[in-house]
Amino acid sequence: MAATAPYLPRSATVIALEDSVVCKLSEPHLAKLGEQFPNIWRHLAQDLAQRLMQRNALVAATRTKTRVFVICSVEALEIARTIQSAFQHDPFIVVIWTDGVFRASQYAIESLERELDQSDFAIAVAQPDDRTESRGQSLLSPRDNVIFELGFFMGRLGRHRTLLVEPRGEMDGVKLPTDLSGFATVRYRHVDGGNLAASLGPACHEIRRIINEFGPNN
């Protein structure tokens, strides 16, 4: 861009990884060559058009409503659906992986990539679904795919937009990867009577506060 519009700052640095023949030109010299060989501008325009297409592929469409994707195991679907119901009166679109996300004609990772492009936040529900032997201890742990998808969304959305919901109290001791040590999680406590909506109420209120604070990821 700076080669054709000298008032623009340089936007990139090119580093050669193999032996190359390089010609360094100032803007006046390039302009003079362009006058003698006009075809230069056509090649530059083609290269700029290709770069703009590559850049536009990374620009997500503007969304009017915040979209939240919920990650969980099959065993934790009741918790995910309770979280989804808690936001039915909020201006959020809450999607669980069972809501038509995975398509029969696609690999699971492709479906997740599509959902990632559309989501502003992700909520992962870490439930003690499995038992893991670690350094001589038997610990309860979430499903591997839940942890994988948590990291997958965190890599794109960032840790402030990727929330981990986990139980506390008598359910303490859920084993998480050491890289998540110190990671702020949203916790809930089971209440007497098995009222899951009441148990998750404070956690959902905290999630609501975070979503309102950061807003859409445009």
Keywords:
two-stranded antiparallel sheet, five-stranded parallel β-sheet, 218 residues, 6 helices, alpha/beta, 2 domains, Rossmann fold
- What is the CATH homology-level superfamily of the largest domain? Toll/interleukin-1 receptor homology (TIR) domain
Count all strands and give the number.
7
What's the domain count? 2
What kind of assembly state do the chains in view correspond to? single chain
Hey, roughly how much beta strand do the residues contain?
A: 15-25%
- The neighbouring-strand order within the major sheet is 2-1-3-6-7
**CATH level 1 name of the largest domain:** Alpha Beta
Would you give an account of this structure?
It is a single chain. The chain is α/β, with parallel strands linked by helices and about 220 residues long. The protein folds into two domains: about 1-60, no CATH class; about 65-215, 3-Layer(aba) Sandwich (Rossmann fold). It contains six helices and seven strands, in the order ααβαβαβββαββα. It has helices spanning about 25-35, 40-55, 75-85, 110-120, 145-155, 195-215; strands at about 65-70, 90-95, 120-125, 130-135, 135-140, 160-165, 185-190. The strands form two sheets. The chain has a five-stranded parallel β-sheet, sandwiched between helices. A two-stranded antiparallel sheet has the order 4-5. α3 crosses α6. The longest helix is centred in the C-terminal third of the chain and has 19 residues, at about 195-215. The radius of gyration is 25 Å and the shape is elongated. The model has no long low-confidence stretch (mean pLDDT about 80).
